[in-house]
Amino acid sequence: MKYLKHIYLFTLIILLSASCVDTEDYRRFQVDELEISKSDPNFHIYLCFGQSNMEGNAAIENVDKEGVSSRFRMMAVSPDDEEHLGRIAGEWYTAVPPLCRWDTGLTPIDYFGRTMVAETSDNVKVGVIMVAMGGAGIDAFDKENYKKYYGEADDWQKGLMNIYGGNPYAKLVEMAKIAKQSGVIKGILLHQGETNNMQEDWPMKVNKIYTDLLKDLTLNSDTVPLLIGEMLTEEQGGICHGMNSIIAKMPSLVKNAHVISAEGCPGKEDGLHFTAEGYRELGKRYAQKMLQLLVLDKAEGMPKLHIEGRYLKDSEGNIVNLHGFAQTYSPYFNESMWSNYDVDACLRYNQGLVRRMLAAGWEMDFIRLHMDPYWSNTPGCQATGENDIHCFEEARFKKYLDQVFVPMAEYAISKGMYVVMRPPGVCPEEIAVDDDYNEYLVTVWDIVSKHPKIKNNSHIMFELANEPVRIVGSDGIAGGDGDPCFTSLKKYFQKVVDAIRANADNIIWVPGLGYQSNYSGYANHRIEGDNIGYAVHLYPGWMNSDGENGDGGSSTGGYQPFQNGWDRQVGPVADFAPIIITEMDWAPARYDASWGKAITGTLGGPGFGANFKYIVDNAGNVSWLLFTSPHLLADFKDVPGTPGAYTFLDDPQACPWPIYHWYQDYRKGTSDTGALKDITVEGAEAGITLTTGSSSYLMVYANYEDGSTSIVSSKASFSCSDPSIISIDGTGKMTALKDGNVTITVTYGEASGIKTATVAVHATTFPLSADAFNPSIWETGTYDETTHTLITGSYGFGGWEYTNGVDLSGYKYLVVKLGNDNTADVKFRLFDKGYWEGAASYAFGNSRKVVVELKKMKKEDSGAILSPKSIKIIGFWSNGGKPIIINDIYLSNDDAENPVKDYFSFDNLNPNIWDPNQPTGSFEPKTGTLITGSYGFGGWEYDSAVDFSGYHYLVAELGEGTEATDVAFRVFDKGYWDGEAASVTFNNSRTAVIDLKSLSKNGSKVDPSLKIVGFWSSGGKKIVIKRVYLTDIVEQPGDFSFDDFNPSIWETGSFDRKTHTFIAGQYGFGGWQYSAGKDLSTHKYLVAELVSMEDTDDVAFRIFDEGYWNGAAGDVKVDKTTLRAVIDLTNLSKEKDGVLTKVSPNSIKIIGFWSMGGKEVVINRVYLTDTKAK
Fold this sequence. Notes:
Number of strands: 64
Distance between the termini: 106 Å
Mean pLDDT: 90
Largest sheet: 8 strands, parallel, barrel
Shape: elongated
CATH class of the largest domain: Alpha Beta
Strand order of the largest sheet: 10-11-12-14-17-18-19-20
Number of domains: 6
Strand content: 25-35%
């Protein structure tokens, strides 16, 4: 030991005389350009201790002082530094050497810090604290043993320890506690061992110091590793090289300890110390290991990713679309090449596959990492399937997260691939909010997102679950689509997202329903938070794509049905968030090597693969992977196959061959194809017909002088001659907003020039062309566009689909005419949502004509109002197999089309309904004059009952010249002598109103399907009939007057006094205000009756006894079936100061309607009554 001490003293004298930094020279480097903020998580601090090689034993050169980043900081520790360098102990300075003390030299830590800041993002700072002494044994740093060591030390050694108050350990802890106020301690670095050369107890002593530091600084070995550098090696003449064999034992003895190799690092002739070159290299190696352990955001140059709007982006703001593969870690999926929970064998096999895939030329930049339940299920526990979580064991999951999944993630990242983690197993067929599986996902992701190597790591992303199928909706019914289901799904996954966000900000990919194929409902029920995208699965046959037998799709539909399916099922979320497809493959069924069965095909024609690539590329924000087994991908060879003897890997119609080359094209970018000749648009020659309310994509081709072509739709720009008819976005997606004709201009340019092309587009609501009319919306049908003949499948449906919904609210009628007799029970139907979510249905019966009153549509099954503002499907249902010739279909505002106009035609009035055998009554059609027989009845009698349920009131008006004073207006649902359903006298009025919603007979309610309508009198006197008509709005005596209706009591709304149509502002309120109060105590009930409301879920009828913001005394939601709301005036109350207080109806200040706004609420009446029932 004395020999080593003498060498240290000699070296110290040389350093002091030859390489000390001049104080003034040093101070030139000490401009504090960077403030250290308190508790900055991006300020990474490292504790460094040891003997002379840590202290610094090489002369500092100019290159070591130049270019030191202000992000690399050092804390002054020695009190002597203030006199010599102007550094105050406990404060931070730019890390210009010397770093340990004023009289020390270059140290490995100089280049450890330089490398760390160079390899981490710009917002990360690196700080070092150094306590090191030449010649010091390990006991000098021990919390207790330093005293004994100090007592036995030579005076010069005591002098070095005195710089640190005689207790180097305490000084290191003191400085570390100060440093923790500024940042986070990320690691402990040690270089020591020469003085303890070949001492077998050295590892235990080091472990004690490491453990004491962790305890006294409240650190965790999981997050704060110990890095130990080797001694100068034998090849470099190292005297203590044998100590390296003892140092090598540290990782097996000390948790999270790592050895830094000194191999090849040059040394001095003394056999103990490294040269400046050696320190520089050794410091870089410390940094490389630390970077590997941290898995920081510059691994292999990989940028940090984040989600911004509908795109995944890097730190420079560039759009990123990833392309990769999937890997599962269980013997079943790993060719049974390992077993018995052999971690090392699992890692060797799967890491080996990654190496082989990359060596084969696969250009991949992400991996879907399945944390397979093989590792987390209790051995011997019998699970019934991957969705059975009763075998899940939390401790095993944590163990193998550390041992298998994190190492595989780190390995993938080291190879330049981002990681998408998937939880163990799959979703049950049916899930529900707060069910066991919901809690399981919260548990899994809470564990994962807390892991120190995963938390906030932008290279690692989370796919929340695998393939949800159905969920119990907010209405209690399980399903895979619809608003109630997505209301529940948002709650289900928001709970998981919130658990993750309590720990980490990693990017999250949220699954949909229907095995991750349906996302439409997320448009109205978005998952809240930052860094949220959506994970999709897509196989042949899904989303109307082509697929072979049994896969749910045709083999000839090609591009457009697939694009429509994508737009319908994924498009609503792709419009606002990025998409990642985490399962997708295809191949002909004969290979039995893929989940999906289909061919690559050709773009725009039959097949799956080529159309898939175009759709996702054109979307511009879709990452995707190939789900083929990795061991097959590892065997890939880029050698074309032989036609007639193709294999799965070399067949151009199977996914590996085209995708291998697509991935290479993505990596390479554009290639030189010569000068741009022109551009062409598919379909431009004949012109394009587009269904109003639907969308289609322009396919743009760039044609080059060398004869090659390239699809450039997503790179072209588009303009429309009339955007009010056709809107077009940057991807070439056209949406027909209304009927009309436009010209689309397409522009595309490269360095060799800019080219344009035009295409004529015709938008029509009901195109009868084969490309627009779908005969197979339900069951497989056929359509002949020449004869306009539809033949549906058995109980099938064919017609038009409107991706974005078509607005028919500008019209009164939709008229449909057939060209042949109805022999197939044909019904005409309109849907405002999906096919199975209810329709307004109109039977042709024996007629060839159907007229739909668009403002009066109701769903056949539920009676719910169907708004004409956004119709998704229109067409024909039949029992199948028979021709339906479509003669004409059109929209109209001509009241001549009104289907009820003929029901009260004077030409059809019979003056002798009673008694037809003694026809004593008479009627003059020109003047509308009816004279009944004695106690007779005249009017209209129908062969079969006419359904008037689409209307609220039947009104009769009499004209000048009426003599009879006892006239009664009556309706019958059956024969004349079976009793009237309603009878109203005129009572000195010329108007009689029958409420069709309140028909009754013998005390029982009667439906408004009527056989007879007309007039009774005692006979012999003139009854001049002005008109008989149906309506929804009749103001009756005692009703609240609409002349006084204020649509803007809260927020600005509108009100049409003629139609009684109220549209509230956002979260607005409209109605009647009474500054002096209105007394409603004369009646028991206040009733509101509506004609219709667009939004059937949010309209409320409210009254207030004070101001609007003092709380409602009555608040009733309008019933979406009856369109009524009844407030019980005898039971008004509201909360005041936390107490429910009864309210009197004798001074009501405000009455009216609240809604979320922007939707039509058509009001019939608001009135007082003593009868609650209708």
